[in-house]
Amino acid sequence: MSSSTAAASALASAEVPKGRTISIGQIAVVSLLALAMGLYFWVDSRYPALVKKLHAGPSVKVVGAISFDALLPVDPKMPVMTRIERTSVNWLYTNRIGMTFGIGFGAAMLTLLPMFSRRRFKSGFGNTLLGVAAGTPLGVCANCAAPIGRGLAQAGASPNTVLATMISSPTLNVVVLAMAFSLFPLPIALTKVATVVALLALVPWLTPKTEPELVCAAPESGGAGSAVVLFLKNLGKMILITVPLMVVAAVLGATFAELLPASSLPVQVSIFGIVAVALIGTFLPVPMAFDVAIAFLLMSRGVPMPYVVTLLCTLGVFSVYSAMILGKTMSWKTAGKMYGAVTGLGIVAGVVTRLWHAV
To answer: From residue 151, how far is each of 158, 239, 340 by CA, in Å?
Structure first.
């Protein structure tokens, strides 16, 4: 049996360390904490905002280069560095609520899962489906899903579950899918779904051969307060890792968006152009449903359909921020394979669309 298989088998039946007794109160308090964060985020912020975008239909608006909102106005006549600074601030402002939830919920998962003796199935397929079931209703973008993925991985969840959660949250949300099917022709919307399904099918190949480092400390024996203390410690660790990388991602994303705006897309379609769009689309850290909105606006403005489809199938699925968090949590090889898989599927979608329109 390989070391990775042995580790997986051990984790599948892991038990709380001897000498520690996890009380129902400890489990309940962390569960309620996670549920409270989720309900507040979903009911007060995320789903109302998504439904509003769905009801906007063809009138959906995008203000910033990589964000729906613009706290600071950005004028193309401004110096490049000024535009990058303002676009970075706008991105951070747009993602403030989702990232706060992602970091807090990730810390809650890191605290809660080690309290249970079983955190994964023995079947890789089952673990992938578990990730899809967990990620689909989360309602967070690829960026905000990254801290949650980190929490799951460090708590002992299967790598399949971690990647499937990170993939399904921004791509299989029912409201975002409804937007795609209402704004695009049926073949285009189905192409988007097909690339997501293909990416999920690749999860076993994308996962690392060795298990990531685990932080599976269970709370000390005692009352519910000890679980809260552990949650706060995990939250502090999560903030130290994720927030600085969030600022880096904001600057990198703003730099690419301002130096290579959508208006620079060539009129003539080429394989090189499709590859470039796929690479940039996978890189940019955009908020939830931004991919559908911007792709629709570009289609409405006459951008060639192969570029639109390539962007629709890559933008918002993964990002430079997701890659950095995944690299530090699992491995940089896994992050690179994930980036390559999303880019490759986007290229395939773009080329197929080009061939279809050429018929």
So the answer is: 12, 12, 24
